[in-house]
Amino acid sequence: MPYVVEPEMLRQLAKEKGYLIMAHNYQIPELQRIADFVGDSLQLARQAMETNAERILFLGVDFMAETVKALNPEKKVVVPVLCATCPMANSLTEEEIAKAKEKYDAPFVVYVNSTARTKFLADYLCTSANAVDVVRNVPSDTVLFGPDKNLASYVAEKTGKRVIPIPGELGYCHVHNFVTTAQVRKLLEKYPDAEVMVHPEVPEQVRKIAHFVGSTAQMEKYPMASSAKTFIVVTEVGMAEKLRALYPDRTFLTIDSMVCYNMKKNNLRNTYRALLSDGPEVVLDERLGEKIRKLVEDMLKLTA
Ligand code: 13P
Ligand code: SF4
Question: Is residue 300 part of a domain?
């Protein structure tokens, strides 16, 4: 194992060993650059359904890698480390779901940022890109929605439906939930012509001062539709790296506290080691995988 790993060495090894490299938009720029495909959760799920590659190296967090594995049960899915997880996904327990189901007679729409066991108990699946479409198309005026309370609030606002967040107050992403309007306004004072883009995982009061709300892939398209030269990117800082590479003539400002340390657990060295040793491999119970496959297929039918 070489001590210094250059991005080109990763590309070469992936090619030799027949790996397709998929990465989420929050990965460090060096990893985004060596990936064959970089996207948001919805794009990554679609890509995972379409690939012919026998081996996939996934760069993101565990629930995303599990979705890729569920859609490719016969293939080898490898990650740099197994401990890159999403704390929000782990915040919803089976007991809380059971309690909510007992109290309300309503379908349970699960956000893709959830564990495989949580998904097993869900009726519908969504990502941040299609949560509004999915809930709009669910044949019920009331839905249980979890684990992200902020996305639940956005979906309720957009659909006019009763969206009951589970687990409730404690369901949030620690990277997005603690951003404040004061942090955004401070940047706006300095850059009054800037436009504010936010991920729907931010709290309602921050969402209210945004020019645009969307998933990371939707944020990627937004500058094309805007004449602004400067954007305040209110999501994990990795997204701004991607935007800067795509639009070199525009300025993208970040909220520096918004770092997902789990996404940043993947680096050039552990990615190289994963390719070299064909592991660690993502393992998923077949019954859970089957359920996730079904949820993804149904989700795509409900997506506009
Ligand atoms: P996207 O699907 O919008 O990329 O979001 C994933 C995520 O983890 C947001 O924190
Ligand atoms: Fe989870 Fe938040 Fe990290 Fe996204 S940014 S993976 S929701 S902890």
Answer: no
Residue 304: per-residue pLDDT: 78
Residue span of the structural domain in which 139 resides: 89-174
Q: Is residue 169 located within the same domain as residue 93?
A: yes
Token duo for residue 143:
């839905």
DSSP assigned state of 299: H
Among residues 174, 208, 237, which one ends one of the domains?
174
Q: Are residues 224 and 279 in the same domain?
A: no
Placement of tokens 């070469």 in the chain: 12
* Residues 21-25, mean pLDDT to the nearest whole number: 98
Q: Which atom of ligand 1 is nearest to the CA of 235?
A: 10
Pick from 173, 216, 255 the residue to mutate for probing ligand 2's pocket: most ligand atoms within 8 Å of its CB.
173
Residue 159, in any domain of the structure: yes
pLDDT in tens, 197-247: 999 999 999 999 999 999 999 999 999 999 999 999 999 999 999 999 999
> Which ligand lies nearest the alpha carbon of 61?
2
Please state, in angstroms and as integers, the Cα–Cα distance from residue 81 to each residue in 62, 73, 260, following that order.
Answer: 9, 19, 15
Instruction: Say which CATH number the domain at 270 has.
Output: 3.40.50.10800
d(CA 112, CA 118): 10
The residues near 246 (Cβ < 8 Å, ≥ 6 apart) are 220, 223
Residue 186 lies in a domain: yes
Is 188 in contact with 196 (CB distance < 8 Å)?
Answer: yes
User: Does the beta carbon of 216 sit less than 6 angstroms from any atom of ligand 1?
Assistant: yes
Q: Quick: pLDDT tens for 63-111.
A: 999 999 999 999 999 999 999 999 999 999 999 999 999 999 999 999 9
Crossing angle of helices 62-71 and 41-50, rounded to 10°: 30
Judge residue 30's burial from the number of C-beta atoms within 10 Å of its C-beta, 0-12 exposed, 13-18 middle, 19 or more buried: middle
Number of domains in the chain: 3
What is the distance, to the nearest Å, from the Cα of residue 60 to the centroid of all Cα atoms in its chain? 8
